[in-house]
């Protein structure tokens, strides 16, 4: 069995603190509101959140849902940090993780604000409120799905596992993203939005924020010598 080096940049003490905090929050949600798992599961697999009762339970005024969203954002940032560090694109450190976390938060907020602005500018809902709830749900599901991946990358049984673990995590993220885009199309068409407007939304609210985040990462996070 491979042994981790004495100094493992992917398994530093602060990573332990992050994972322990995540597990603590998840345990608290499980005790405080165990029904939240059922709500998230149903909202993830349902193509439409037509039932107002289900949408009401996805309110960010709910402390447990907000806590799960915060956990998901941290896990997405941690996995992203692990990927760029493993591939040698950054100098490892908690400061870099902090910058990546800030980018993930900024992208999520930008998407939600853009959806709100579109609704205000057109004076029509067009399914935007439903899609905001869908966006929150998918972010939580993606973060929780990446939890075991991030944990195994940090502390693998064999260091060689990392070569395919990060690829598995990227595949999971891509699958969730494609499913979310499909949901966006279903919600838009079901709300009477022309397909061309849905395509414009996907470019403006889904692809553009990520492209801007990658550009910021290239300028402020990634090593200058990297070709990205």
Structure description:
It is a single chain. This protein is mainly alpha-helical. It has one domain (13-220). The chain is built from 8 helices and no strands. The radius of gyration is 19 Å and the shape is globular.
Order of helices and strands: HHHHHHHH
Instruction: Report mean pLDDT, rounded to a whole number.
Output: 83
The helical percent reads over 70%
Give the termini distance in whole angstroms: 35 Å
Radius of gyration, rounded? 19 Å
How many domains? The number is 1
> How does the major sheet shape up?
none
Secondary structure tally, helices: 8
Structural class: mainly alpha
Give the helices and strands, then pairings.
Blueprint: H1 13-32, H2 35-45, H3 52-56, H4 63-86, H5 94-122, H6 128-154, H7 162-190, H8 195-220
Helix pairs in contact: 1-4, 2-6, 4-5, 4-6, 4-7, 5-6, 5-8, 6-7, 7-8
Provide keyphrases for this structure.
single chain, 8 helices, 0% strand, mainly alpha, 228 residues
Describe this structure in a few short sentences.
The chain has 228 residues and is mostly helical.
């Amino acid at each position: 069995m491979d042994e981790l080096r004495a100094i493992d940049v992917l398994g530093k003490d602060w990573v332990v603190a992050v994972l322990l905090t995540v597990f603590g929050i998840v345990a608290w949600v499980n005790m405080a509101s165990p029904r939240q798992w059922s709500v998230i599961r149903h909202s993830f697999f349902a193509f439409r959140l037509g039932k107002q009762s289900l949408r009401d339970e996805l309110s960010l005024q709910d402390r447990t849902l907000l806590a799960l969203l915060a956990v998901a954002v941290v896990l997405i940032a941690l996995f992203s940090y692990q990927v760029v560090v493993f591939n040698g694109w950054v100098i490892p450190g908690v400061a870099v993780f902090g910058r990546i976390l800030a980018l993930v938060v900024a992208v999520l907020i930008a998407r939600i604000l853009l959806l709100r602005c579109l609704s205000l500018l057109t004076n029509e809902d067009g399914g935007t409120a439903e899609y905001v709830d869908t966006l929150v749900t998918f972010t939580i599901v993606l973060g929780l799905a990446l939890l075991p991946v991030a944990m195994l990358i940090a502390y693998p049984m064999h260091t060689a596992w990392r070569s395919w673990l990060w690829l598995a995590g990227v595949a999971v993220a891509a699958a969730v993203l494609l499913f979310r885009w499909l949901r966006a199309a279903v919600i838009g068409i079901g709300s009477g939005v022309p397909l061309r407007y849905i395509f414009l939304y996907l470019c403006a609210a889904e692809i553009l924020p990520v492209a801007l985040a990658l550009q910021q990462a290239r300028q402020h996070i990634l090593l200058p010598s990297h070709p990205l």
